[in-house]
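Why does residue order matter? Because the sequence determines the fold. Keep that principle in mind as you read this record.
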Amino acid sequence: MITAIVFIQAAVDRIPHVAEEIAQLPGVSEVYSVTGEIDLIAMVRVRNHEEIADVVADRLNKVEGVLATETHVAFRAYSQHDLEAAFALGVD
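Structure:
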């Protein structure tokens, strides 16, 4: 399982709608509204790197109201929650 953390800047008047639409995209496990320079953080969990492009570049970036994104790919999980979820999916 590959996890990507996507920072999203959105049009202020569309933040709730953008968050809801992104949350419905296949591969997106969670969307958080946050404080600071970015508006939303989306957690993308996919089986291979090519799927990150499918989710972020081909779908998420095309949601109306998304102004900019910055994607960070995680290469190691340290929390027990993430480890338990990975083993539940059969990922080694």
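The longest helix spans residues 15-23.
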